[in-house]
Design a protein that fits this description.
This protein is an alpha+beta fold and 130 residues long. It has two domains: 68 residues, Winged helix-like DNA-binding domain superfamily/Winged helix DNA-binding domain (Arc Repressor Mutant, subunit A); 52 residues, Ferric-uptake regulator, C-terminal dimerisarion domain (Dna Ligase, domain 1). Helices cover 46% and strands 18% of the residues. A hairpin with a 6-residue loop joins strand 2 and strand 3. Helix 1 packs across helix 3 and helix 2 crosses helix 3.
């Protein structure tokens, strides 16, 4: 396994552990630890992982900052996502509900939804209580 492949593996493992979060590159560097992967290597690898479909680059509403969401697992590709404006947490929608919604959109508008890339934004229950 080459050096960059090792780095990419560490990065993917970190993103998998945080797959329900939308993270900035700086947050990812902090999670990985610069002693394991340099900041510049994180940026390079995020770009490569985006090209390969493992991460999706997103800009959250109300901000121009770039964030990344891990999309490499089958669980992520098969669900619509809910994302909290306040805490940034991402939730997978219930599969039967997701499937019914996607089928309804297809029947009504003849529009094919990319479920792994679709995010509905709002405020989660925990943040609403706070």
């Amino acid at each position: 396994m080459g050096y960059s492949t090792k780095q990419r593996k560490i990065l993917i493992e970190t993103l998998e552990r945080h797959r329900d979060e939308t993270l900035s590159a700086d947050q990812i560097v902090d999670l990985v630890g610069e002693d394991k992967i340099s900041r510049s290597a994180v940026y390079r690898n995020l770009s490569a992982l985006e090209d390969q479909g493992y991460v999706k680059r997103v800009t959250l509403p109300g901000t121009k900052r770039i964030f990344y969401r891990y999309t490499g697992s089958e669980e992520c590709r098969a669900h619509l996502h809910l994302e909290c404006f306040k805490c940034g947490r991402t939730y997978h929608m219930n599969a039967p509900f997701t499937n019914a919604l996607i089928e309804n959109v297809m029947q009504q508008s003849k529009f094919e939804v990319d479920s792994g890339s679709t995010v509905l934004y709002g405020v989660c229950e925990k943040c609403r209580k706070n």
